[in-house]
Amino acid sequence: MQLTGNIVLVTGGGTGIGRGLAEAFHRLGNKVVIAGRRLELLKEVSQANPGIEYMSLDQGDAGDIRRFAIELKDHHPDVNVLVNNAGIQRVEDITSGGPGTAELTIAINLLGPIRLTAAVLHQLLGKPHAAILNVTSALAFMPTAPVPTYCASKAALHSYTQSLRFQLRDSAVQVIELIPPQVQTALQGQRGFEGMPLDEYISETMTLLETEPQADEIVVKRARGFRFAERDGAYDDIYPVYNEKMVAAAKRRP
């Protein structure tokens, strides 16, 4: 991936990994546009980083994605990098309650990036150095029981990303999957889960993008154990121990 001279769109750019990536690309001299539902957070990022622009986007709403794509083409026709980062993570008790949380999670975490990619792909196909970066999770490869639909949505996005990459193999659009470990962001709330410091994750990710410009996946060191657990024959040993720990932590949450 070309790291400079881009016009980068980052969804979920108001907080967490999205904000970290947006600011990192901005520091490299790229023009950055962030998008999300909470305009006050987007405005805060823009004010802290003069030059970053922001747009409203409810990724869980198919109609709003269509509206957003039209406005994006009108105001930022030269966007050549799409970072599908926006997502939610909710604790679910599968044994009680309805599927509302699961449906919302799938709408935002899976249908959202699929719909947005489809809506802006025609813009990217005409650019010489285009890229789509899909942010999945190490939990796509080592699901944690308290957040089952989140893990399922990220596993599905991983699969979609592979197919997207293959279908675009003869185009100028590079498809990259970012696979973070658990990172210290507001996504996990106050559930007491340990995570990689956000600044460290962003720094290592940007270094990997620079040193491995043709990589299909960007996997920081802390995520490799989960990402490659099945390949390395470690999945059956890690899964029960890890999930007992996560269930215990979820029970202690406020």
Automatic annotation (TrEMBL):
<dbReference type="InterPro" id="IPR002347">
    <property type="entry name" value="SDR_fam"/>
</dbReference>
<dbReference type="InterPro" id="IPR020904">
    <property type="entry name" value="Sc_DH/Rdtase_CS"/>
</dbReference>
<keyword id="KW-0560">Oxidoreductase</keyword>
<dbReference type="InterPro" id="IPR036291">
    <property type="entry name" value="NAD(P)-bd_dom_sf"/>
</dbReference>
<comment type="similarity">
    <text>Belongs to the short-chain dehydrogenases/reductases (SDR) family.</text>
</comment>
<dbReference type="InterPro" id="IPR057326">
    <property type="entry name" value="KR_dom"/>
</dbReference>
<dbReference type="Pfam" id="PF00106">
    <property type="entry name" value="adh_short"/>
</dbReference>
<feature type="domain" description="Ketoreductase">
    <location>
        <begin position="6"/>
        <end position="182"/>
    </location>
</feature>
<dbReference type="GO" id="GO:0016491">
    <property type="term" value="F:oxidoreductase activity"/>
</dbReference>
<protein>
    <submittedName>
        <fullName>Oxidoreductase</fullName>
    </submittedName>
</protein>
